[in-house]
Write a structure and sequence with these properties.
Rossmann fold, seven-stranded mixed beta sheet, globular
Length: 434
Amino acid sequence: MPPSTFANSAPDTPTSGEPITGTRTYSCRFCGERLRHTFVDLGTSPLCQRHVTPARFDDAEPVYPLHVYVCHRCFLTQLPSYVPREEIFDEEYGYFSSFSDSWLKHAEHYVAMMIRRFGYGRRSKVVEIASNDGYLLQYFVKAGIPVLGIEPTRNTAAAAVRKGIPTVTEFFGRDTARKLLASHGPADLILGNNVLAHVPDINDFVSGLKILLAPDGVVTFEFPQLLHLIEQNYWDTIYHEHFSYLSFTTVAEIFARHGLTLFDVEDLSTQGGSIRIFGRHAEDTSTPPGDRVAAMKKREQAAGHFDLDYYEQFGERVKESKREILQFLISLKRQGKRIAGYGAPGKGNTLLNYCGIRTDFLDYTVDRSPHKQGNYLPGSRIPILAPEVVWTTRPDYLFILPWNLKDEIVAQMAGIRAWGGKFIVPLPKVTVID
């Protein structure tokens, strides 16, 4: 069933019998249909990158719902805008991309691939949306290619500027696109990694791409694929920064609505299973959609993309996952084992707060980013320390919160094996790595 027939694909009343809690009603951020069907409800949680400073330790934290819906018309899975984007992506934003070696290598490989495939050079213009601390654009700069970063969080944008990467500190949409078109000209390449899910007004965002893109330009975006989130049970990737949980089929329809055609798609291993999409103006017929586009849509349809039951069964799996994690940790603590965390990612805070894990289970967590060290995780108030602390406290287990980086972390912290230390990976199922 093609996306264009979504409008007649389901009735206006819930089919699962599951009540929608709360008194407010919400509309789909793409098609405007009233949201009636729950995907998963993770209760309430504080903002995942709003780390608690020592000075604010005794202050109350605001918490917001993590109730995710699926639209029965376009099947966009989404978290309503419970929190304004300006409160999430502010000057205290805690995520700096450059502190993951594997992510930097991924970015470097992407730049080399794009230069090789599309021939970008000194006369090209590359724009990255949500450019963070310049983790990716630095590789285009090294190749002598002009770049511009667009990043709303002032602290990460300042880090990029210190690297010599020109950066505009704004949110992206139609208005920003018009201003940049007038001041910098059209972009030959517009890219964004793990930003499309962070956009509350996805129509404004995608239509901005149409405005800024050169007539023969290319857009690429990477994002975790909803298919993998469901199949691999990666429910901890649900948090307030992520307004949408994206399938290729629905994203293709969103782009098409705004005059952009997706002509290619690649599978990626990042973030537990992501895809990279390639788009052009619909008027540019130089590259018709390839076989991988049709294959990806067929794959999602076969999995159940157009079946509400596919989405509504997910909540029970999440509850069982919570029980499994807690049962395992309780067993270890009753044996007198010492457990520390590794990492302070957004996904980790969803897992800790939904499961009710505090310092009664994890003594502390460690993170390589000095911007996080010395603070506390939101909600759980678990202290964030430097990785060197592990070598002096010698925990029996390291609980890996950024499971998508488990190979990198196990390699970095392999020394814990000297005293019999082991690693715990909580998802998709609790796994111990000796």
